[in-house]
């Protein structure tokens, strides 16, 4: 028994020693891994290639007119003059109609995409990656083809029905889109170069994230526009108003820094911009809600080949009487107030534009700091690039689309009718019989109408 016990004890001791050695080896690996991670954390931003600073694109006439001012006030006047010019141009495009607004959105999307992709190209230009620019623009073409094809299928059904070539493209639209993307994917794989694999995958991800930010959001902007121009104008104008008023309040009263990513942003500007935007959204909504041109859904008339905005305004845009809360009655002296229901929704839009929308700008600021650049480009003097002005708009577009689908939009009879018109006659007859039977059961149609 004693010999057997000694052998068992020796075996147990050997097992314990093996476990200790394994634990030590594992700990050594963990230490090595921790050291490597620590070294990566200690890497400074100097490892990131420098991006050439943008040039000053301020017109010479403005430089001479403002030459006597300090840099702070010179920037103030340049931003102010260019802001008024852009707002005036925006109103002109609104006057020209919804189709011009769609072209504007598409142009802004392409320019924003170009600015972000160009930063990536400049940062990694020394590596001379093959096909990077060509593939980037090819993927932009593919994604736009997919999204705008979906829009054509949804809103231009009667137009498509008259043209056999378009019917083929719409019927197999998703397959064609996938085939186009797959072609680009294969081209990317074929372009991989030894020793640059990781960098090429970085840029592949860069391109796709840029597509997600620009193309997807601009598609949502156009979807919002089809719901009625007011769903396009109020959100965009609220972001613009917040940007301007926050800058003004911060310029004159700003003392308390808001966030480290944007040192010039202050709490005074943030709060002042919030209240100004809420008031602006309420008043601007009241003005727009009075006109069919702004409140009616944008529809394509296949007979005139034009977009039309004529309808009987929905309940959202019909004046109603509301009771004033008792606490406010003593202050305002009103028991009731007349307003459009959409003005209540404008509070939600303005609040998001003021409180959450700026985080799109903070995100862009963090991106620019990561690559040591002041602006995305120098397209607009005093403002930077187009992306510098629309970094908050894309976040706003997503919110508006979600808000409409969650709280506003119901079944769209016009859209359903367009889809029914492109069905085969047998399918249309089947839908008609099913709908007729349903209406008879509901008591809406008389049983004598069956046939």
TrEMBL record:
Region annotation (Disordered) ranges: 1-32
TM stretches of this protein: 76-96, 131-148, 168-190, 202-222, 228-254, 266-289, 342-364
Domain of life per record: Eukaryota
Membrane topology: Multi-pass membrane protein
Subcellular location: Membrane
Gene Ontology CC entries for this record: endoplasmic reticulum membrane
Name of the protein in question: Phosphatidate cytidylyltransferase
Keywords: Lipid biosynthesis, Lipid metabolism, Membrane, Nucleotidyltransferase, Phospholipid biosynthesis, Phospholipid metabolism, Transferase, Transmembrane, Transmembrane helix
Enzyme class label: transferase
Biased composition (Acidic residues): 12-23
The keyword Lipid metabolism is assigned to this record: yes
Family: Belongs to the CDS family.
Catalytic activity: 1,2-di-(9Z-octadecenoyl)-sn-glycero-3-phosphate + CTP + H(+) = 1,2-di-(9Z-octadecenoyl)-sn-glycero-3-cytidine-5'-diphosphate + diphosphate; 1-octadecanoyl-2-(5Z,8Z,11Z,14Z-eicosatetraenoyl)-sn-glycero-3-phosphate + CTP + H(+) = 1-octadecanoyl-2-(5Z,8Z,11Z,14Z-eicosatetraenoyl)-sn-glycero-3-cytidine-5'-diphosphate + diphosphate; 1,2-di-(9Z,12Z-octadecadienoyl)-sn-glycero-3-phosphate + CTP + H(+) = 1,2-di-(9Z,12Z-octadecadienoyl)-sn-glycero-3-cytidine-5'-diphosphate + diphosphate; 1-octadecanoyl-2-(9Z-octadecenoyl)-sn-glycero-3-phosphate + CTP + H(+) = 1-octadecanoyl-2-(9Z-octadecenoyl)-sn-glycero-3-cytidine-5'-diphosphate + diphosphate
GO annotation (BP), single: CDP-diacylglycerol biosynthetic process
Protein's pathway: Phospholipid metabolism; CDP-diacylglycerol biosynthesis; CDP-diacylglycerol from sn-glycerol 3-phosphate: step 3/3; Lipid metabolism
């Amino acid at each position: 028994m004693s010999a057997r016990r000694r052998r068992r004890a020796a075996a147990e001791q050997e097992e314990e020693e093996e476990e200790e050695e394994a634990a030590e080896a594992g700990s050594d690996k963990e230490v090595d891994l921790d050291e490597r991670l620590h070294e990566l954390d200690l890497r400074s931003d100097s490892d990131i290639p420098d991006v050439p600073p943008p040039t000053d694109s301020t017109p010479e006439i403005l430089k001479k007119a403002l030459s006597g001012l300090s840099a702070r006030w010179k920037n103030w006047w340049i931003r102010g003059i260019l802001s008024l010019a852009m707002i005036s141009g925006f109103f002109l495009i609104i006057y020209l109609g919804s189709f011009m607004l769609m072209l504007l959105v598409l142009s802004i999307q392409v320019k924003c995409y170009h600015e972000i992709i160009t930063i990536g190209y400049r940062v990694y230009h020394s590596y001379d990656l093959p096909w990077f620019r060509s593939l980037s623009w090819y993927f932009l073409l593919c994604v736009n083809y997919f999204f705008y094809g979906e829009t054509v299928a949804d809103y231009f059904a009667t137009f498509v029905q008259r043209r056999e070539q378009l019917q083929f493209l719409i019927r197999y639209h998703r397959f064609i889109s996938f085939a186009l993307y797959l072609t680009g994917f294969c081209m990317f794989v074929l372009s991989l170069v030894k020793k640059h694999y990781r960098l090429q995958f970085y840029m592949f991800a860069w391109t796709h994230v840029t597509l997600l930010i620009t193309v997807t959001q601009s598609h949502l902007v156009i979807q919002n526009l089809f719901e009625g121009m007011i769903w396009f104008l109020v959100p965009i104008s609220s972001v613009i108003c917040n940007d301007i008023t926050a800058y003004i309040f911060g310029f004159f009263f700003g003392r308390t820094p808001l966030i480290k990513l944007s040192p010039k942003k202050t709490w005074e500007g943030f709060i002042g911009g919030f209240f100004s935007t809420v008031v602006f959204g309420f008043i601007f909504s009241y003005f727009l809600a009075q006109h069919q041109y702004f409140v009616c859904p944008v529809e394509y008339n296949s007979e005139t080949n034009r977009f039309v905005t004529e309808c009987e305004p929905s309940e959202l845009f019909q004046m109603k009487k509301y009771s004033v809360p008792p606490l406010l009655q003593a202050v305002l002296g009103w028991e009731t107030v007349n307003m459009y229901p959409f003005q209540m929704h404008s509070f939600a839009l303005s609040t998001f534009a003021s409180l959450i929308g700026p985080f799109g700008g903070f995100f862009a600021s963090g991106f620019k700091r990561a690559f040591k650049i002041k602006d995305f480009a120098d397209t607009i003097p005093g403002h930077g690039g187009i992306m510098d002005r629309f970094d908050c708009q894309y976040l706003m577009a997503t919110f508006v689309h979600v808000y409409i689908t969650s709280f506003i939009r119901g079944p769209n009879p016009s859209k359903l009718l367009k889809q029914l018109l492109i069905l085969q006659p047998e399918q249309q007859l089947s839908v008609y019989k099913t709908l007729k039977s349903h209406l008879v059961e509901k008591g809406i149609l008389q049983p004598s109408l069956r046939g």
